[in-house]
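Ticket #4471: complex job returned nothing on first submit. Input attached below:
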Amino acid sequence: MTAALEVAVTRHIGTFTLDVSFRVDSGTSVLFGPSGTGKSLTLALIAGLIRPDTGTISISGRVVTDCARRIDVTPQDRRIGMVFQDGLLLPHRSVIDNVALAVRQVKGRRARRTVARSWLERVGAAGLADRRPATLSGGQRQRVALARGLAGDPSLVLLDEPLSALDLEVRREMRAAIREVITSSGVPAVLVTHDAEEAEELGDVIIAYDDGRVTGTRPVARTESPERRDDDSHRTESA
Amino acid sequence: MTTVVPRAWLNWLGIPPWVWNPLSVSLRAASEATIVVAVVGTALGYILATGRWPGRGAIETVCSLPMALPPTVVGYYLLTRLGGPGPIRTAEVDLLGHPLTFSFHGIVIAQIVESFPYCLRLSRAAISDVDPRLANTARVMGLTRARVALLVTLPLARRGIVAGVALAFGRALGDFGATMIISGSVPMATTMPIALYDAIIDGTHHQAMVLALVQLGVAFTILLGVSRLGRVRAW
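Support reply: We reran it on our side without changes. The output follows.
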């Protein structure tokens, strides 16, 4: 089976060296480890925002980075969705415009807005469509960012500490929303976090990071509610 | 140069030709210069702010020299480069039918050179201040570099760019030294500052007072209008 993502790269930044190799299949894989261990740098490399010094990156079997063969697909051509820690919504655009700008699979403003609206509904943010990002709460911003990350029909969605800027209560609520939306979309996801509870709750596989290296990979054991087990069986089927 | 306002209207409004002629030359030359400066200055500001390549500082310094140089020095170089015998002058005559010096187009060139640094520096600074992560986000969303510039970076830097264009317009409108040297005081290619200078030299103090007041009013009105435009809420 073709991997959703295969990464084998090195990158030196000052005295720090990232040297990682891992494979991601369907479901959500969590890059877990303390701050400053290269997790977010890995996401930037996958997104094509930074070039590795050596190595290759493949998304759904398509090579997007290969330093030896000088392949470097531009970020806009990688078909990736991305959700950042603080949302990074475009402040001068309405919520619906933010999401519609990411829609690639249809042409025309009206069609893009229709897709965007359906994604806002899926993340529970339909009522925010005409608002400006500055008027949204942290949780609302992340819901919109999640809709934007998935609206472009991506092959892979990257979530860079999407909950770390939120209050504890909102974080719990958003965990459930992220899990539900990512699972139902069937899009493979890579999530970065340094929160162990978050990693266990959101991840299907945990890839442990330390000092720029992968120190271990393990599947997450599911032992909670029947509802949660239903989610897992759904994900297995969709995979 | 012909005026676009019918003479009868000017008479009816009570505007004498010694005010209207230099005013129309000044407004038209400054407008044309500002259009060029706004487009080229913002584009170069964007390239300098977003690119990472050696020589960016040198380019900005060279383009900013007119800010530090006396306008007469700028005028001198323009006069000798554009007006001296050689291929540049030949090209000017082939293209326009006359040399740039002592003409309306010479005034526009002088104002472009004098006002360019203001637009360049302010737009470059404003674009540098835009969070680069927003541009990165837009690229990951699928936007090309050109669309990122047009839909994300430039709109977010809009206030600084508008301020730069306004300053450039004010600088072009008020230029005296470079304009004087490249155009002299040729009738129908005389700007307001030169007309004021002529009035002072001729001892026509009433005309000088009126010309000074008109320039004060025009500069104040235009700069106030443009700055209000820059304050319009974008988000």
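The CA atoms of residues 181 and 222 of chain B lie 26 Å apart. Closing as resolved unless it happens again.
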